[in-house]
Design goal:
Layout (H helix, E strand, L loop, with lengths): L1 H19 L46
Length: 66
């Protein structure tokens, strides 16, 4: 009996913080809000279409320490 009581109390203690989250009323838009914004559609290259690095570009590997 005591094990069930402890498990029920633990479940209640874990569920209470979830009940406190959120807003009771409907959300309101703040004054001077510019939402929803329209973001540009940036076309990304298809997977596997990566370009080989330039041979003249500086390498990311560290050089010898002097």
């Amino acid at each position: 009996m005591s094990r069930r009581l402890i498990l029920a109390a633990l479940a209640l203690l874990l569920a209470l913080p979830l009940a406190a989250c959120g807003r009771k009323g409907s959300p309101e838009v703040p004054e001077n809000a510019v939402y929803p914004r329209v973001y540009p559609n940036i076309p990304f290259p298809p997977p596997g279409a990566r370009k080989a690095p330039d041979s003249q570009a500086p390498s990311a590997e560290p050089g010898p320490v002097q």
